[in-house]
Amino acid sequence: MLVVAAQKRVAVEVKVPQLLRAPSTAVGCDRLLKIVKAAVKGARTGTKGQLSRERPALLVIGGFHLAPSDVHDFQSAAAEYLRGATGAGKHAHLMGIGLLWFGSFPVHGPSGWTVTATLHMPVAVNPGYRGDIPFTTK
């Protein structure tokens, strides 16, 4: 649960699919779309699910050591899913779908090599979001 103000709450659900735990190759847009669909279904976005229609919600999908292309492909896949849901009149309470991307990379500094951690969370904003809490990614 994310508390935005004393009276305002946003439900947050985090899913970390097995396929996004350090895949050996790029996952690709088609498989990422399947992952997004499964994560939304697994979060039970109905009236009594984890992401209940009773309050604004954000779905976060975690991934570790993804290919850089997967971050872009995830944005495309999540945006495609949300456009389809909007067209079908679904998920108006869902603010968006984010990819919490953990990674690391070697850095050569003055005293030798070290490993630096990275954390990014791009979010595909739901064009059909109709909640009472404004949502922006800027």
Model description:
The protein is of the alpha/beta class. It has a domain at 40-130. The chain is 25% helix and 35% strand. The longest helix has 20 residues, at 68-87.
Give the key terms.
6-stranded mixed β-sheet, alpha/beta, 2 helices, 35% strand, 6 strands, 138 residues
Decide which structural class fits the backbone: alpha/beta
Percent strand: 25-35%
Q: Distance N terminus to C terminus?
A: 21 Å
Number of strands: 6
Secondary-structure element order, N to C: EEHEHEEE
Biggest sheet overview: 6 strands, mixed
Low-confidence stretches: none
Total DSSP helices = 2
User: What is the rounded Rg?
Assistant: 16 Å
Mean pLDDT: 88
Helix content: 10-25%
Tell me, briefly, the overall form. Answer: globular
How would you summarize the topology of this molecule?
Elements (H helix, E strand, L loop, with lengths): L1 E4 L2 E8 L13 H14 L14 E8 L3 H20 L6 E16 L2 E9 L2 E3 L13
Helix pairs in contact: 1-2
Short précis:
This protein has 138 residues and is an alpha/beta fold.
